[in-house]
Amino acid sequence: MSINHYDDETFFDAYAKMQRSQYGLSCAGEWYLLENMLPEIKDKQILDLGCGYGWHSQYFVDCGANKVIAIDCSKKMIETAKMKHTHPKIEYHICNLEEYNYPTNTFDMVFSNLVLHYVEDLTAVYRKVYQTLKPNGEFIFNIEHPVFTAGINQDWIYNAQGDIEYWAIDMYYYSNKRNTQFLGCDIQKYHHTLTQIINELIVCGFVIETIQEVCPNEEMLKQPDMIHEMRRPMMLLVKARKR
Amino acid sequence: MSINHYDDETFFDAYAKMQRSQYGLSCAGEWYLLENMLPEIKDKQILDLGCGYGWHSQYFVDCGANKVIAIDCSKKMIETAKMKHTHPKIEYHICNLEEYNYPTNTFDMVFSNLVLHYVEDLTAVYRKVYQTLKPNGEFIFNIEHPVFTAGINQDWIYNAQGDIEYWAIDMYYYSNKRNTQFLGCDIQKYHHTLTQIINELIVCGFVIETIQEVCPNEEMLKQPDMIHEMRRPMMLLVKARKR
């Protein structure tokens, strides 16, 4: 079962204040890499797993997608998406990504941004995505990096002066629920090893086309404190093709 | 240029005392996973990059390999290999793995165990391996995991009582030389990100067939202190096929 914090009012309000929530894709640190990984979008059928505010779904229809099915388990997220990014070619559904029916052989691309680390059984989702893709269809996702999810409290270790000392991990090979603080709330995520994230895709029949860890580009490094993002990986982008 | 500590007498003597040096593959924690990744060996032409004492080369000829070319940059290692694992089908050469001539379209498998983290330019080696493999040939290697090479001093962080507290990493996205202590000697290795280790293979034309992080099995976990090996990944096994 996946975890949904996004219907919690405090969390949802804090999320609304994030740069990426207010200003969209251009304010998401991963977007400059993720956009480059996308295949031709024109006339394609796309499934957006965990669509949030619908920024990506909107982008896909702007690029000429024929149809986007966008699901999110959070009622509040879907309500916001319907207000902010309504479009005749986007169909929004309140639905847990483990419970969606995944019609066979239907989509040219399945996309998922920063959601799969809330999923306990990653392999089960991989199998469903495989089934719902057309042959040669692409599965493109951004998941929190195992180094990040295995991070102690998913926070830096600070020295006595309150400065960042380093990033510490523990219990790496125990794939399980981890507690952390995010936007001032207690949050749970699922830590998966790299083997589980990548090798299980191969076992399911996918061909790995790109693996890209997200680091800031030159422009982003001009922002205060962004240099720390060079010190440990936070996100992992994967592009896999159905054989 | 890759790094060679193995001709240093102090280091070489300490290495000789390691379980894996004395008793071979069965005492190497990765072997139970690595052996499972090997293709059919019988009648194959194999290149062993960084052969060390020659344990793997010996295993390959025992499995019916037609020919094994085994190279190592350490004169002392090759001398030991020639004493311990001499065989008419194994040809040992003292040679840096960046300087080897890599004959085109020659080998069915290129194998490399715990050597590539001494190599600065991983992609250059990948290209040479690709060229020297026959079509559908396999490249199977074990490299120190990026979490390990990015580890601070490549050692645990200990608390005031001297107990292991956690594993800390830093400067992850800076792919460069790292200093550590190994077997009582000052050692340098090259840290490479996961993106460099995996994605560069894909860029070179390889298909990723298996990615497997090494964790201890049930039997190994009975050994004292082995439980700590569950806390951070040390080795990464990769199997890639030439397209």
What are the salient characteristics of this protein?
homodimer; alpha/beta; Rossmann fold; 7-stranded mixed beta sheet; two-stranded antiparallel sheet; 8 helices; 11 strands; 26% helix; globular
Notes on the protein architecture:
2 copies of one chain form a homodimer. The first copy, chain A, is α/β, with parallel strands linked by helices. Chain A has one domain (9-146, 189-242): Vaccinia Virus protein VP39 (Rossmann fold). Chain A has 8 helices and 11 strands. In chain A, strands 3-2-1-4-5-11-10 form a 7-stranded mixed β-sheet, with helices on both faces. In chain A, strand 6 and strand 7 (164-169) form a beta hairpin. In chain A, helix 6 (122-132) packs parallel to helix 8 (194-204). The longest helix of chain A is centred in the middle third of the chain and has 11 residues, at 122-132. The first copy, chain A, is globular and about 55 Å long. The two termini of chain A are 28 Å apart. The relative contact order of chain A is 0.16. Chain A binds chain B through residues 147, 152, 157, 165-174, 193-195, 198-199, 202, 207-213, 215, 230-233, 236, and chain B through 147, 152, 157, 165-174, 193-195, 198-199, 202, 207-213, 215, 230-233, 236. Strand 7 of chain A pairs antiparallel with strand 7 (164-169) of chain B, so a sheet runs across the interface.
